[in-house]
Amino acid sequence: MNAGATFQAFTRSGKRGERLMATVALIAGAGAGLYPLGDVSEVEEPETRWGWPSAALLTWQQAGHRVVYLARHGALGDIPPHLVNYRANIAALAACEVDSVIALNGVGAIRPDLAPGSLIIPDQLVDYTWGRPHTVFDAEREEVEYIDFTEPYDKDLRSDLIEAGRSASLQLTAGATYGVTQGPRLETAAEIDRLERDGCDVVGMTSMPEAALARECGLSYASCCIVMNAAAGRGDGSIHAEIGAHMDAGMQAAASLFAEFLQRL
Ligand code: HPA
């Protein structure tokens, strides 16, 4: 928490009290056109040791908190998952002293009960990406921190998101394993079968190395997955048509979840 800023608010018991103002980062994926969700008061693009973030960081106030928004795929959505500068993105957010990071990730469903348009707060991941700069410890003779990644997503932040989803009556699944593939191509049916045997429930291309870099930088980080489609070999029609059909509803649900999360913070 940024301990400095407070504001007056009614507590749940109805008493007027001081609420801490938090700074929450929102990393949005595909369909980022829905954002920003407030009046932007600051636009900054900090250069980091690893270069520039995908886009300018936009800041707005929402529910008494400060939101710092970053479009992972760039302002025009033209940076594919394997070319995102994840290190610059996370370093830029760390420089803004954010208290927590919520990442939106579009995914395909491997499990048949995970409906397109619904949300998932994953608790585990399997990393199938390769060749992406994946650590901030990239200099020789620098002290390396071997981060504990047993739980890749922050437990408390996940709980807060799950409670917010329940409070807002959203269709949300608490807990799933996210298989992170390299892309940009989608998977073969046999690859999806293999991911299922590995224990993956959903497949997407963006949670790694982002989640690990956030941990290396000491940021509390959780993912909100938006189910866009049935994974390769698991649906009836075209994957692209399905993504097009469910993207807007999924992004609206994610925006509602985020708004409720901030209200309850
Ligand atoms: N595979 C990988 N990434 C994705 C998918 C998928 O089916 N859907 C949305 N992002």
Descriptive report:
The structure is a single chain. The chain has 265 residues and is α/β, with parallel strands linked by helices. The chain has a single domain, classed as Nucleoside phosphorylase domain (Rossmann fold). Helix content is 25%, strand content 27%. The chain has 5 helices and 13 strands. The strands form 2 sheets. Strands 3, 4, 5, 6, 7, 8, 9, 10, 11, 12 and 13 form an 11-stranded mixed beta sheet that branches. A two-stranded antiparallel sheet has the order 1-2. Helix 2 packs across helix 5. The protein is globular and about 50 Å long. Mean pLDDT is 91; it is low at 6-15. Hypoxanthine binds next to strand 7, strand 12 and strand 13.
Question: What's this entry about, in short?
Answer:
The protein is α/β, with parallel strands linked by helices. It has helices at 86-95, 155-167, 189-197, 210-216, 239-264; strands at residues 6-10, 16-20, 23-28, 40-44, 57-62, 65-71, 100-109, 119-121, 124-127, 172-174, 177-180, 202-204, 220-230. It is globular, with a radius of gyration of 18 Å.
Provide the CATH topology: Rossmann fold
Count the helices. How many? 5
- At the first level of CATH, what is the class? Alpha Beta
Structural class by SSE content: alpha/beta
CATH architecture: 3-Layer(aba) Sandwich
What order do the SSEs take from the amino end to the carboxyl end, as H and E?
EEEEEEHEEEHEEHEHEH
Count of spatially separate domains: 1
**SS elements, strand count:** 13
Percent strand: 25-35%
- For CATH, the homologous superfamily is named as Nucleoside phosphorylase domain
Name the bound molecules: hypoxanthine
